């Protein structure tokens, strides 16, 4: 059966282009288009779509207001269609908090030709969304506070925080998974490097949002900076993030090379650099996401002595990347998202204790 899609956008041009893109795919079809959420509400009742694409800024009802009501009353997979602006990135991140599965950014140049160039990406995101696990939820801006409940106890072992590193990769559903992981990290945790599939213009806002929510410091990686305990470095949307070694220090490095597995930043690139430069000092974590980016890189980490964790199927929005990593034998343990931070820190503490006794 084909994936049924309803397109909601106040631009007739965007509605037409999205319809053309979706209907060109053999496994999906547009069953309705709407210029605003009010009409969309009736269309959803009539057509029972598998996926909704939703513009952010629309007349009669804001896209976020509609999304919040939809996730509370009739949860379903939603792919946001947003503008690549600072305001657009903030609204899009809020939409992901509210339960949207993923987002597509409108091109700045010719809308029609630009959107048609996105055919493969849009189709992939709709396919992933159709398989996503959606739960009703109500999210507020005050859901987490720095140092509040849920932060794990301090490690209080200098070896654990200074020698070890946590290396994280994620894609679809990863913005919320990364947040849920990092808010549990104590201020003395090992340095953390993160690659989340996200376009330029969004990673800086995402890092700032995480920094406001977490006990640790979170920033968009700039390259050539020392990796410090209690700090997390997020790959910018325009470059691969790599780990390198300079003397006794771990450093970040940015690479604007070709996409890997169709992604830049790529999880495989980060994981492979950790395998080469950190080896047994690295702990790998692969979270929710579509595709297989990160699986082979994580296997290289394992072969270099790293210890690896994967998010389980039940708590993934899309169980693609973790499944592939598990399938190639790259992981040591699999756990629910809410348990992973404790599992990672527990392993690090036990491993450092053994090293100190030797």
Automatic annotation (TrEMBL):
One of its GO terms (molecular function) is protein-glutamine glutaminase activity. PROSITE patterns: CHEB (PS50122), RESPONSE_REGULATORY (PS50110). Its EC number is 3.1.1.61, 3.5.1.44. InterPro entries: CheB-like (IPR008248), CheB_C (IPR035909), CheY-like_superfamily (IPR011006), Sig_transdc_resp-reg_Me-estase (IPR000673), Sig_transdc_resp-reg_receiver (IPR001789). It is an enzyme of class 3 (hydrolase). Its main location: cytoplasm. GO terms for biological process: chemotaxis. It catalyses: [protein]-L-glutamate 5-O-methyl ester + H2O = L-glutamyl-[protein] + methanol + H(+); L-glutaminyl-[protein] + H2O = L-glutamyl-[protein] + NH4(+). It is found in: Cytoplasm. Residues 158-351 form the CheB-type methylesterase domain. The active site is at 171, 197, 293. It holds the Pfam family CheB_methylest. Phosphorylated by CheA. Phosphorylation of the N-terminal regulatory domain activates the methylesterase activity. Keywords: Chemotaxis, Cytoplasm, Hydrolase, Phosphoprotein. The modification 4-aspartylphosphate is found at residue 55. GO terms for cellular component: cytoplasm. Residues 4-121 form the Response regulatory domain. It comes from the Bacteria. Involved in chemotaxis. Part of a chemotaxis signal transduction system that modulates chemotaxis in response to various stimuli. Catalyzes the demethylation of specific methylglutamate residues introduced into the chemoreceptors (methyl-accepting chemotaxis proteins or MCP) by CheR. Also mediates the irreversible deamidation of specific glutamine residues to glutamic acid. Belongs to the CheB family. Contains a C-terminal catalytic domain, and an N-terminal region which modulates catalytic activity. This is Protein-glutamate methylesterase/protein-glutamine glutaminase. It comes from Oxalicibacterium solurbis. The lineage of its organism: Bacteria, Pseudomonadati, Pseudomonadota, Betaproteobacteria, Burkholderiales. The gene is cheB1.
């Amino acid at each position: 059966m084909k994936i049924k899609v309803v397109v909601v956008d106040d631009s007739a041009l965007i509605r037409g282009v999205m319809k053309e893109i979706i209907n060109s795919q053999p496994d999906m079809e547009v069953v309705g288009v709407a210029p605003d959420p009010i009409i969309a509400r009736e269309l959803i009742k009539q057509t029972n779509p598998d996926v909704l694409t939703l513009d952010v800024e629309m007349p009669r009802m804001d896209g976020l207001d509609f999304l919040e009501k939809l996730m509370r009353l009739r949860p379903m997979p939603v792919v946001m269609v947003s503008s690549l602006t600072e305001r657009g990135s903030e609204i899009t991140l809020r939409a992901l908090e509210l339960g949207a599965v993923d987002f597509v950014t409108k091109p700045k140049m010719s809308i029609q030709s630009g959107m048609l160039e996105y055919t493969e990406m849009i189709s992939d995101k709709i396919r992933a969304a159709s398989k996503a696990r959606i739960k009703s939820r109500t999210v507020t801006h005050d859901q987490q506070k720095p140092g509040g409940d849920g932060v794990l106890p301090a490690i209080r072992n200098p070896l654990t925080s200074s020698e070890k590193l946590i290396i994280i990769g994620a894609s679809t559903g990863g913005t919320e998974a990364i947040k849920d992981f990092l808010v549990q990290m104590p201020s003395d945790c090992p340095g953390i490097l993160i690659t989340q599939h996200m376009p330029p213009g969004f990673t800086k806002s995402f890092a700032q949002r995480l920094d406001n929510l977490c006990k640790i410091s979170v920033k968009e990686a700039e390259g050539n900076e020392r990796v410090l305990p209690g700090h997390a470095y997020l790959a910018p949307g325009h470059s691969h993030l790599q780990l390198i070694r300079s003397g006794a220090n771990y450093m970040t490095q940015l690479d604007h090379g070709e996409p890997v597995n169709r992604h830049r930043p790529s999880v495989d690139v980060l994981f492979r650099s950790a395998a080469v430069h950190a080896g047994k000092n690295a702990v790998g974590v692969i979270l929710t996401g579509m595709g297989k980016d990160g699986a082979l890189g994580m296997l290289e980490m394992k072969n270099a002595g790293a210890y690896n964790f994967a998010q389980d199927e039940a708590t993934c929005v899309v169980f693609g990347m973790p499944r592939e990593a598990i399938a190639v034998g790259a992981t040591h343990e699999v756990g629910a998202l809410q348990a992973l931070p404790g599992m990672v820190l527990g392993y690090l503490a036990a491993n450092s204790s053994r090293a100190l006794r030797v």
